[in-house]
Structures are given as C-alpha cells and as structure tokens.
Amino acid sequence: MQPDLIKKLFQQHKEPSLFGRYITNGHIEPLLKNLSSKVSLSVIGRSVLNKPIYGLKIGEGSKRLLLWSQMHGNESTTTKALFDLLNTLSDSNSSYSNILKACTFYIIPILNPDGAERYTRLNANEIDLNRDAQDLTQPESRVLRDAFNAFKPDYCFNLHGQRTIFSAGKTNHPATVSFLAPAQDHACTITENRKIAMELIGVMNAGLQFEIPNQVGVYDDAFNLNCVGDTFQSLNVPTVLFEAGHYNNDYQREFTRELIYRAYLLCFDYISNNNITGTGYKPYLDIPENDKCFYDIIIRNTLMDNKIIDVAIQYEERLVDNTVFFVPMVQKIESLPEFYGHKEIDAEGSAVLSADGMPLKLSSENVFVMLNNEKITLLVE
C-alpha cells in the first residue's frame, strides 16, 4: 500500500466536521444520521447518565473485527480517524473495496459518552472502564462485553490516546503512535494468539516509519486481567491496543489522526488479503518500549537561588465552555539532563520570573514568563 495513496485518500475522506480534542455524542450524531446505506446503526446500550452508546456494522466478509474508541472519554483522536475510515469504506469508488468483501466491522465510536462530554478519562461514576473488564460493574463495560459475546470477533482493536510525556524508548523521539499486543497470562507468554496481534502491529509500524521514523513505541505488557485488552486476549481473540500520541506542535492531534487512519488501512488491508498465523511476529519485538522522557516545555539553564537549573512545564487540559484549553503548569524545578521538551527555551543563565516578577513555583500556572524583561508565552502556538 503506497504512502502517497493513503495520504490522498485521507485528504479526500477526512471528516471535516470533526476537529480537535473535544469529541462527544453531540458531534457524531449528525454524522450517524447521514451514514451510507452500507452501514447499519443501532443503539446498543446506555451510559450511567442514560446517553446512547452506538454500534455500527459495515462489511460482508467472514473476518470479524470489533473496534471501540473513547473508552476513556478524553481520548478522541482514534474516534476522528474512525469516521475518516468510514467515509473511505463507504465510498463506492474506494481503492479498498476488498476490505469490506473480506471483513465485517463492528464499531463502537464512543463507549464512554459521559466521560467524553465531561472530557475525563473516567465514566460518570468515576470508574476507569479499562479496569472493569472482570467485575463489569458499569453499564458501559457490560455494553462492550455484550457486543464481544454477540459479535464473536476474530480480532479486537482497543483504541486510545496517550499523554505528551511518552517517548519511543529512552530517546528524544516522541511516541507519536504506540501499540501493544496485550499479555494473556502473568508470565507474558508470547502465545500463538499474541503472535497474530504482534504481526499486525509489525505491519503497521513498518508503514508508519515512512511518516514518523523512530516515533512508534510499544507499551509495557505487564498482565492485568482487569484491563479489557488483557481479558479479550486471554479469551483467545487477538487484540491490538492503539495509542494516539503527540507530534510536534500537534496538540489538536490532527496529524496524529492521519497517522491512525494510515494504521487502520494498513492493518485492515493486510487482514483482508492474508491468512494471518503469527509467523511474522518478530518485527514487533524490535519496536522500542515507551518511556516517559518528555515535558511539553523545558526552560534550560535558569538561574534560581544562585544555581543553574531547568524548569519543566506540563500542560493541564481543561474543558471550558466546550473548548479544551492547554494550561501551562510548572511541573519540575531541577536539573533535567535525561528529559526533553517538545519545546525548549534556553535562559542562558538568566533568571526566569513569573508575570508578577516573582520566582517560579512548583504547581503554579504561568501563561507567560519574563526572561531578560521579555515576555515569553508558554501557550500552545
């Protein structure tokens, strides 16, 4: 699959009504009303606050793929890319009609609509749905398990977003996209089932390297049966975790959205054209494991208390009037030689002060700082 072709398809089929980080039922419902006749739509359950949870089915093939997004309500990039994918698959002139002939998709675009509306990881009962796979205490968890049991998927795709702190290995390369073939036992055995998930991730990684060399990572595979991916993997259904991460200056995750779309097409085209046995799993083992080497901003070589230190700024995401703001907060004041900033400022030995001319303090909010009497903004550009 040619990288230029996928880019062209994305440009043609990107859903223009979805943008940025705040995506809720209110944003997708107009799209659901105008779905192609190829897509069947149903309300498959209700959230804690009685919001509908939607299920979409498309395709006629024997290979069955279950996908769910926004299990964590503030992780919306994969949802945007799902609608870009649906636009592509619904296009009768698409180059990838083979995918729908070989595969049937069952898609839950927003599993946690309450969390999406509040822009929080948790549901309305303050429960992390990705730790509720065994107890099934929450209605949203039961909706997903019921879909899994009824649809009987051959593959599962658990779609998430990750913070800007992650690096691909202990490097200055951000983990712009990350994956995981979850473990299915405490020994993290590379089972035949996991090998299939690993093979799929290896294919996606190879394709993504053309766009983001050295910026793909994998998560630690420590086993936790309370997590949905680990549970479904333990039930012998190959399961792939997606994590949409940070690209330089892309805080709205629009370029990452394109990368996730690219990964979808690479993966689903591969599934449609191959009998996957897991024999191609070994490239997965070469993907670097995620580390936490980044802050959003590091101000280097700052004079404070007669010492030269660094100041790390991390954005706190706040929802105000249906808009997500990135609020700069002082996270660390210390020497940070093993960390990187997505943006770095060199104070060259000068003092860096707050807006009121005082030394910076931990956990303080600073929209801008003063450096040599110059006002320097810390806001997202």
UniProtKB/TrEMBL annotation:
Q: Name one Pfam family in it.
A: Peptidase_M14
Protein name as it appears in the record: M14 metallopeptidase family protein
What region holds the Peptidase M14 domain?
Answer: 15-259
Homology family: Belongs to the peptidase M14 family.
Coiled-coil residues are: none
Q: Which PANTHER family match?
A: PROTEASE FAMILY M14 CARBOXYPEPTIDASE A,B, SLL0236 PROTEIN
Question: What are the entry keywords?
Answer: Hydrolase, Metalloprotease, Protease, Zinc
Q: Carries keyword Hydrolase?
A: yes
Q: Which organism is it from?
A: Gaetbulibacter aestuarii
Q: Which CDD domains match?
A: M14-like
The cofactors it requires, by name, are: Zn(2+)
Q: Does the keyword Hydrolase apply?
A: yes
Please, which domain of life does this record's source organism belong to? Bacteria
